[in-house]
Amino acid sequence: MSRSSSGIVAGLTAAALAAVGFLAYQASANVPDTLGKPAPGASPSHVAKGPQRPRRDPAALPAHSGQGARVVYALKGDRVWLVDDGDKVARTFTVRPSTVDPEPGSYAVTSRTDRITGSDGVPIEHVVLFAKNEGVVIGFSSAQDGSMASPDPSKKTGGVRARLADGTALWNFATLGSKVVVVP
């Protein structure tokens, strides 16, 4: 091979290596983030399949929520449980929280009003008051029209809203002096 032909071969080899390098770079830049990862919900084959920790039922009564007849209100889950004196859940339901939450702890129902206009101007019924925080009285109620709109975040309100049927069940369950336990 002559000196000029070996120079051409070297040039072509360098050009070929540059092209391969460029194509490899492009391919690596376009790899989906999910390549090599298990599909959502799939168990990776390299992970040992031992006993799995059971998922907690969001409707399950929270641990450490007291004993005996009580209303339990979970702030994180926006859920209420009506618990009878045998520690059996009589009913559970979700609620729409107010802008001011009660502090976690144990309270007693201090007041009940059948029908009134709420601090947000909405006609409400079955008002069950049990706490005060930041100067705001806090209690459960239902909008008379059945709505569960989010409260205006710029106003301090204490109405924890339930659906009509749930509000009626709470009204019938939580008489004056009834225990209300608020958990995080």
Automatic annotation (TrEMBL):
Name of the protein in its database record: L,D-transpeptidase
Q: Which UniProt keywords apply?
A: Signal
Position of the signal peptide: 1-29
Q: Where is this region: Disordered?
A: 35-65
